[in-house]
Amino acid sequence: MISEIRAQLRISRPPEAGFAVRGFSSERGVPVRVLLVEDDSRIAHFIQKGLTESGYVVDLVADGIEAVSQVASTAYDVIVLDVMLPRMDGFGVLESLRQQGQKMPVLMLTARDTTEDKVRGLDAGADDYLTKPFSFAELEARLRALLRRGTGEASAHLRLGDITVDPVSHVVRRGDTVIEMTPKEYAVLEYFMRYPGRVLTRTMIIEHVWQYQFDTDTNLVDVYINRLRRKLNDAEGRIIQTIRGVGYTLRPAQ
Fold it and tell me: What's the CATH number for 2-151?
């Protein structure tokens, strides 16, 4: 399973320097501070690397007792907490923190996709649950949603022309019409919506959405672009425009 997680946790960078860093708090204008509690060093360092590159400040601890101690001495905006930990498991950590009145959002990680574990975690005070293996993009999206929820910030819909994307519910609309999309179709469109007018190469799209290195022989991106064009009623490519020899860009419908 480690190899699968390693493959999925490849980190993708924004397409161009100078964009707003995702890890910065819109409310305070300072980096979001994350406590990552994970005893598997390989998984922990992949997550830590990705969050750091996205602008978060990340402290890493490897056991439950240390996690409780760390929270007592440092203020965190959000905690990423594994269930299976030495000395004190994630459930015990969470119960201890909530009993102390700590109210920061907590995203729990588990290798066991069982309803019993999820119910126990949520009952203990977890705000969300993520089952391994997972993509880094999903982990980061869930953290953003928790941080918005914690500050009362709106869901920050992405809009371009008459296209609207909700990053929390993953609902896509064109005008008043809801457009059904697969998870990967949605991920490609959201990536474009976050960087409207910017040219995204096939390599960027592959690494961001699928989290693996680009194979120059694959037409995977082109297949998904064609699917999106059909669903957006963009057969002539006026919304998702082809930049020949480079990639694609998203522009509002004329």
Answer: 3.40.50.2300
